[in-house]
């Protein structure tokens, strides 16, 4: 029997820590961290996700602001909303829910977000900082996966990690974080040959593919840790349910530890979004303070 990495429980712990620090920030600096979520269109999956974010923000003491725009919104209108949030000193985090309707240019919008407020970690500056090992806002899903992995492994050094998927949201930043943690990282994707054989060499498998129950027991080395990022809605006996990218029933007996779906990576993603909003609010406070010092230098700072 594998150890179950309980994302519901672990995310509740992360949220308690965030809530405590949010209270401190309020008490010491009179600042309430605020997260703005921009949702274009009425995709039902996004609605669920946004609703969960609002609930978790409330628990953490974070103010949440929602902007819901029509599905036929044009680029200029969306840019104006982002711009207004960029300029608002009371907004610390901005998340534009993806995917956007096809008339909108995703890359342009992401690049238009103030990098200091980029709680998704998708802005090119955040991506570059992560890749070059500088401190930055790290994408929420891979950050959540790393917290889960740390429950199982004190030290990830030297582990062979195979990441299935190379999206900008999950696969690529996941591989960067594992590399940073001294893993030997293999990223596989739809052009990779012999995925099963590569996965069988892995101490850690992270599946972020979007294919229901793709990963089978014979892909997994005995004793490996399996992180299932996939969230796929499927119909079983006429009823809708969520399954991951891993065939949980067959893989669970082989793995040492495994995340469930639902109740695994999903709740951790949302908890990490709150963590990033707190981090962003703190950094913005520090940056305002340093600008105050620049514009009002202490007389003693002059060398005489
Ligand atoms: N739990 C959470 O918080 C989150 C969950 N998700 C879920 O994770 C999954 C992945 O999401 P996302 O990264 O955005 O998806 P994308 O569709 O952007 O990327 C999927 C990746 O998987 C690769 N791929 C597709 N089919 C295969 C295959 N048969 N064998 C090997 N590789 C394959 C693709 O390869 P190629 O690049 O060559 O096309 C691509 O790199 C989805 O189920 C999504 O719902 C996503 C975000 C957050
Ligand atoms: N800008 C942006 N940032 C994202 O991080 C982002 C995004 N857009 N678009 C969509 C994907 C998907 N994603 C999920 C997060 C949590 C759950 C989640 O909480 N899942 C619950 C179940 C929810 C349910 O019951 O439907 C669970 O797995 O237990 C799901 C999906 C974040 N994404």
Automatic annotation (TrEMBL):
Q: Which gene encodes it?
A: folD
Enumerate the CDD domains for this protein: NAD_bind_m-THF_DH_Cyclohyd
Q: Output this protein's name.
A: Bifunctional protein FolD
Q: Which EC number(s) does the record attach to this protein?
A: 1.5.1.5, 3.5.4.9
Give a yes or no for keyword Amino-acid biosynthesis in this entry: yes
Pathway the protein contributes to: One-carbon metabolism; tetrahydrofolate interconversion
Q: Name one GO cellular component term.
A: cytosol
Record keywords, A-Z: Amino-acid biosynthesis, Histidine biosynthesis, Hydrolase, Methionine biosynthesis, Multifunctional enzyme, NADP, One-carbon metabolism, Oxidoreductase, Purine biosynthesis
- Gene3D superfamilies membership: Leucine Dehydrogenase, chain A, domain 1, NAD(P)-binding Rossmann-like Domain
Q: Which residues bind NADP(+)?
A: 165-167, 231
Cited function: Catalyzes the oxidation of 5,10-methylenetetrahydrofolate to 5,10-methenyltetrahydrofolate and then the hydrolysis of 5,10-methenyltetrahydrofolate to 10-formyltetrahydrofolate.
Molecular function, one GO term: methylenetetrahydrofolate dehydrogenase (NADP+) activity
Q: Which family does it belong to?
A: Belongs to the tetrahydrofolate dehydrogenase/cyclohydrolase family.
Which reaction is recorded as catalysed by this protein? (6R)-5,10-methylene-5,6,7,8-tetrahydrofolate + NADP(+) = (6R)-5,10-methenyltetrahydrofolate + NADPH; (6R)-5,10-methenyltetrahydrofolate + H2O = (6R)-10-formyltetrahydrofolate + H(+)
Domain of life of the native organism: Bacteria
InterPro entries recorded: Aminoacid_DH-like_N_sf, NAD(P)-bd_dom_sf, THF_DH/CycHdrlase, THF_DH/CycHdrlase_cat_dom, THF_DH/CycHdrlase_CS, THF_DH/CycHdrlase_NAD-bd_dom
Q: Provide the coiled-coil residue spans.
A: none
This protein's assembly is summarised as: Homodimer.
The Gene Ontology biological process annotation of the record reads: L-histidine biosynthetic process; methionine biosynthetic process; purine nucleotide biosynthetic process; tetrahydrofolate interconversion
- Tetrahydrofolate dehydrogenase/cyclohydrolase catalytic domain location, by residue? 5-120
**What Pfam families does this protein's entry cite?**
THF_DHG_CYH (PF00763), THF_DHG_CYH_C (PF02882)
Q: Where is the Tetrahydrofolate dehydrogenase/cyclohydrolase NAD(P)-binding domain?
A: 139-284
């Amino acid at each position: 029997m594998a150890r179950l990495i309980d994302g519901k429980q672990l995310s509740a712990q992360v949220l308690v820590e965030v809530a405590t620090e949010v209270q401190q920030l309020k008490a010491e600096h009179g600042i309430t961290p605020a997260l703005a979520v921009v949702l274009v269109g009425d995709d039902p999956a996004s609605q669920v996700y946004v609703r969960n974010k609002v609930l978790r923000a409330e628990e953490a003491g974070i103010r949440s602001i929602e902007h819901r725009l029509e599905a036929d919104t044009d680029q200029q209108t969306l840019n104006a909303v982002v711009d207004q949030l960029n300029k608002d000193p009371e907004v610390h985090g901005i998340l534009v829910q993806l995917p956007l309707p096809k008339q909108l240019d995703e890359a342009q919008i992401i690049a238009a977000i103030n990098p200091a407020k980029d709680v998704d970690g998708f802005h090119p500056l955040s991506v570059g900082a992560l890749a070059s090992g500088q401190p930055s806002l790290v994408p929420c899903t891979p950050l959540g996966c790393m917290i889960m992995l740390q429950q199982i492994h004190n030290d990830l050094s030297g582990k062979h990690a195979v990441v299935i998927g190379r999206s900008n949201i999950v696969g690529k930043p996941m591989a960067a974080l594992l590399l940073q943690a001294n893993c030997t990282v293999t990223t596989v994707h739809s052009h990779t040959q012999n995925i099963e054989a590569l996965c069988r060499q892995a101490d850690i498998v992270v599946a972020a593919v979007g294919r229901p129950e793709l990963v089978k027991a014979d892909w997994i080395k005995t004793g490996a840790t399996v992180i299932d990022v996939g969230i796929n809605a499927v119909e079983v006996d006429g009823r809708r349910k969520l399954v991951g990218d891993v065939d949980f029933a067959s893989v669970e007996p082989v793995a040492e530890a495994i995340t469930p779906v639902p109740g695994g990576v999903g709740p951790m993603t949302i908890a990490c979004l709150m963590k990033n909003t707190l981090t962003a609010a703190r950094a913005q406070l520090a940056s305002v303070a340093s600008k105050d010092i620049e514009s009002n230098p202490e007389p003693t700072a002059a060398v005489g």
